[in-house]
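Quiz preparation item.
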């Protein structure tokens, strides 16, 4: 209970040596942008997975050609931009809030997974473009290699990142423990 006349600490106050947090309205804007780009990325990857399954399993040659073309469009104009935006906005979100980027294991794991997925995605986007071109010129596009393992792996990575964001498993990194105990050490060094 807060004694009469004292104000409740604001969310922007320093917490355990954390950098000054964003204003509540800016934090909500950044968080909303991060959630929107992340959910958009997951949705686009699920759509890509459906097209990849069509390209891999269909016996209908025109459907396979169309699937490869649609996969290329989806990667270039939705998946890659959303992945890069999600990574960038997530970084801003982590650095501007008390969660930090390297204080909690779940944030570190989520950031590493997101960064790795984005790099793999950018590299694989060239493969998808090549497959789309080959799909248009090949006599039988059903014989083209599949990107299904990447589709499934990418979906799994994004689901894991989502679970980490929702459940926020406990566990501070060494840096997080040092930052948390620093105010206590400083108080214990002050002689009354």
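Solution:
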């Amino acid at each position: 209970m807060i004694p009469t006349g004292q104000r409740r600490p604001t969310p922007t106050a320093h917490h355990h040596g954390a950098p000054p947090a964003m204003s509540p309205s800016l934090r909500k804007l950044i968080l909303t942008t991060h959630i929107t780009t992340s959910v958009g990325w997951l949705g686009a990857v699920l759509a890509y997975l459906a097209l990849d399954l069509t390209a891999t399993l269909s016996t209908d040659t025109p459907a396979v050609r169309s699937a490869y073309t649609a996969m290329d469009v989806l990667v270039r104009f939705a998946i890659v931009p959303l992945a890069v935006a999600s990574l960038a906005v997530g970084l801003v979100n982590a650095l501007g809030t008390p969660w930090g980027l390297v204080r909690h294991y779940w944030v570190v794991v989520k950031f590493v997974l997101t960064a790795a997925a984005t790099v793999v995605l950018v590299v694989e986007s060239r493969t998808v473009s090549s497959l789309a071109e080959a799909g248009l010129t090949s006599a039988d596009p059903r014989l083209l290699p599949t990107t299904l393992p990447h589709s499934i792996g990418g979906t799994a990575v994004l689901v894991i990142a989502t679970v980490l964001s929702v459940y926020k498993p406990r566990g501070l990194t060494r840096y997080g423990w040092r930052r948390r105990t620093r105010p206590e050490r400083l108080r214990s060094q002050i002689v009354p």
